[in-house]
Structures are given as C-alpha cells and as structure tokens.
Amino acid sequence: MLDGARHFATIKTKSVTMKEKLVSYYKRVRFLLGIKPSSLEIPTPPPELEVPPMYPELGRKKRFLGLRLKGWHLSKRAKLCVVACVVIAVILVSTFAFLSGAFQINAIKPSANDSANSPSPSPTPVPKATNAPSDSPTQNPVANDIQSPQPTPTQSKHPPGVITSSPVVNSTVWEEVAAYAWAYFQPGVGVDPSTGLLYASLEFHGFTDWDLGGYIQAVIDAQELGLVGTNDSDGWGSYARFNYVLTFLETRPLNNYSYPYQFYYSNGQPDLTDSCNETVDIVDIGRLLVALNNLRDFSETYNLNLTQRINNLVYDSNNNGVNYTALVPDIQSNMQNSNSIYAYYIDSGFGSFFPAVANASEDVMNNIVNSPTIQTFNVTLPDVPLTGDPLFCSVFELNNNDSQLMNLAYQFYNASAAEYNATGKYAAFSEGGAIGAYVYEWVVDTYGQVWTISSVGQTSYDMEPIIFTKIAFSFLALYNTTYARNMAIFLEAAMPEPTYGYCEGADNYGDNIANPGSNSNSLILDAALYAIQKSP
C-alpha cells in the first residue's frame, strides 16, 4: 500500500529523525485503517516532512511578479507589469471577440455510438451517474448516456492503443492488455534477473510487503491467462518465481522486533536508511496474506506443493520467522469499529489464516454499509475512507465478493462518472506514484471530505488528480461502459506505448506520467482475468 515507488518519487530536502518517522508511520497506518485522530491529533507534520511543491516553477512565477502571499503586496516594478498586462489583455480580448464573431465554428459533438471504423481518443458521451440498485450491482449504466464537457484530447505520439483500435472490448482485447501488463514482470524489466525479486517501479529496485503481494497475484493471474507456464524452459515459470519469493520470505532479515522492514532492495537486503525499524506495517502484511492464501489455493490446483511452506511461513515463527499470530489481537480490537476499505481488504488476508478473525472483514463491511452517507454530484456514498486500490483488489482477489462489496464498487464508479459529467474531467482515484510524490486520492477521506489528495504523511497535496490506469481498466473490466472505454482511450493516447508495462496514469491534460510500476500492472492483470472469465 505504501508502494516502493514512493521511495524514489518523493523529493527529500532535509533529514528526518527516527522519532519523526515513527510518528508519521504510525499515523499513516491508523489513517488507512479509518481510525480518526482526536482533535488534538490532527496531523500537522513538522516542516521538514512536508512534500515540496510539485511544480517549483510556480514559485518562481510568484517571485517574478513581486507577490507576497501574506497581504499580497506588490513591488513598484510588479505594479507596472500588472498594469501593462491588463492593457494588453483588454486589447487581445476585444480582438478575439471580433474574430470569433466573424469566423463562427460549430463544434461537432461525438456520436453516442462507438465508431467501428474510426475510433478516436476524444471522449464520447458518458453514462449519467445513478445509484446502483441493491439487487443489481453490475447493472450497465450506459443506457443513460448524456452529453458532457470534454477534456482537451491528447495527441498520441505512437500507434493507436489496444482499446483505441478495437471497436469492441472483448476477450481478445483483454488478452492483449494482459500481455502488455505482464511485460513489466519480465527479468531485467520489473524483476531482478539474479534474485527473482521484483522492482516496485522501473526507477526503484526495491519493494514492500504490499508490492510483494501484488507480484504473487500477478504471477497467479499470468498463468491463469496462459502468459506463463508452471515450468517454462527459460527458468522463469510460475514455480520458479514463487520459489524465489518464498525463499526470500523464509530467510529475509527482520527488524529489532522480528517484523519486516518497510522496504527491501531486490537483492533481499533491507533499506536501513528509510525503513521503519521499530514497528510493523499491518496493512502491507495484510495484503501479503491475501496473496499467500490465493497461492495456497493455486498450488493445490496446479500441484505445486507449496501449501506446507506457506503455512510454515505464517504459523511457525520459531525459525527466524515473522510472528503473524501476535498481530491477530490488533485485528480483533479494530474489527468492531473500523469502516475503512483498507481494513476490509487486509482483514480478509488475516481471516483466511486465523479463525479468530475469520469474520473480521464481514464486520468491517457491515460498518461501511451502515455508516452515515454523503452526497457528491447527486451520488450517495458511505461516509468512510474510500479509494480505488483496496476496493478493486478486494473485488478481483477475494473469494467472498458479496453484493455489498459489488454495490460499493458500483457506487465508486458512479461517483467517478458523475464527477466527469459535472466537471468534464475524468476521475479514477487511487494511490500511486506521481511526478515528485507518492499520493493518495480519496473519493471520500477519513475526515468526510470528497475528492481530496494527500501525501504519505497525510498532508493535503495540491495537484491535478491522476487518472490511474489500473482503476480505468478496472472500470472497463467491470462495466464496459462508454465512459470507461473513453477514459482508457484517453490514457492510451497520453501515455507511452506500454512496451514495458503500463504507466501509472496521467492527469486530464496528458501530463504527470509516472513510469510503469508493479502495483499498477498487477491490478491490470487482475482486471483482464476478471473480464475474460466473465465473457460469454
């Protein structure tokens, strides 16, 4: 969840003491689990923890104009500049008004039907957002398409993408999408060819337990999709890959309290400079347990004989292992009150191994469903922390996808489509790497605010939201609507060709494109497998 990509993307200007790390680390885990701080604990990190501006040139522009943020005092030179600019602006506006009257151009609105012969990256009408009926969580809302404002189309610098060039998004298309996503996990690209361990991104050759869980899931998906075999002749079949991961988990160095470090490098050694050495990230561990449980089932299906090794990892801490059992009381103490989608996902991981918390995720979902509601663009959502990654990982990776979870995913989608209808900007909120930071985009955050962005330290982050590729493809796999398809087309045009996997995403202006990473491509593989399996 705290993706390794954050490690390389965040700009650091000052050193941070271990005490400050622990405070930020503890608050972050509480924040993701939906544990609201008291009024005295509202996060106000010290100046040295604040993330620098994403676009420092904005600061330079303020200095050029001679502006002071407090009081807005202008220098004499700045005043002369402002007056001159106003005069020029008046002249330009008058000229433009004359020309626009003389040369009136009628805008051509796209057809509501997809064009089979000339697919375009320009958005077409999007579905009108409505609340999903409780008895039909996957109802296709495309029948209520309406005309909407449109973001400026991005001119693609490469051949049309898979979605763009296909009039119908079918299993063949999803197989191509999956092959692109799997390209990230090739040795020397997103996987260390010496150790078989993953890279969180092309830039950061390290990972967290959250990333490691995503990699396990990606290999499972790839074999189900026929992209890799059990014992491929090149030595990179699924069994070899799982063996690398399990061997690492069985032998990795642990911190002073016998829990995983926050970051490990792809050589298997911990990052001692930035890893939290005095605590444990229960969120990251929960995601790893989800993947290990899925690997147990996968092992039985394909006769990999890995079940006993997995059980020993989780239950036996005597041989330099992690004492996961000691974390169960923390899950028990929070299951009655937590209403975070992160808690739902990670509690499912613990519940799959420990009977004492087998019903923890069910309790959390009941808390979510019974929470007070909040309105955004006429769509009703539960007033709980809500973002894309844990929600769609839950949909695609858990075995207990009841109607409550599917309705929540549909509400999330509807809110995103409604936001586009109202603002003309695509929305696919989640967590991930941006240029200069690792961010969390919340449709609803812990404090009941909608459409907010925060940094790792819970600090409000001012930036144009990223349209995360993994969430756009999740929408497309689940609902296959005009809105979801056009969003995927927009991203295909904005981003580079996914030769080494899909990039994190782009904003609505085609900017802020972070390089491919493990979590994005893992979730895209999840979505592709889901779409293919549900196809007629």
Would you mind describing this structure in some detail?
The chain has 536 residues and is mainly alpha-helical. Helix content is 43%, strand content 7%. Strand 5 and strand 6 (379-382) form a beta hairpin. Helix 11 packs antiparallel against helix 12 and helix 13 crosses helix 14. The protein starts with a helix and ends with a helix.
Summarize the topology:
Blueprint: H1 5-9, H2 18-32, H3 57-64, H4 76-102, E1 126-127, E2 145-146, H5 171-183, E3 206-207, H6 209-224, H7 238-251, E4 264-265, H8 282-302, H9 307-315, H10 328-335, H11 341-351, H12 360-369, E5 373-376, E6 379-382, H13 388-397, H14 403-423, E7 431-434, E8 437-444, E9 450-455, E10 467-468, H15 469-479, H16 482-494, E11 505-506, H17 518-534
Antiparallel strand pairs: 1-2, 3-4, 5-6, 7-8, 8-9, 10-11
Helix pairs in contact: 5-17, 6-7, 6-8, 6-17, 8-11, 11-12, 11-13, 13-14, 13-17, 15-16, 15-17
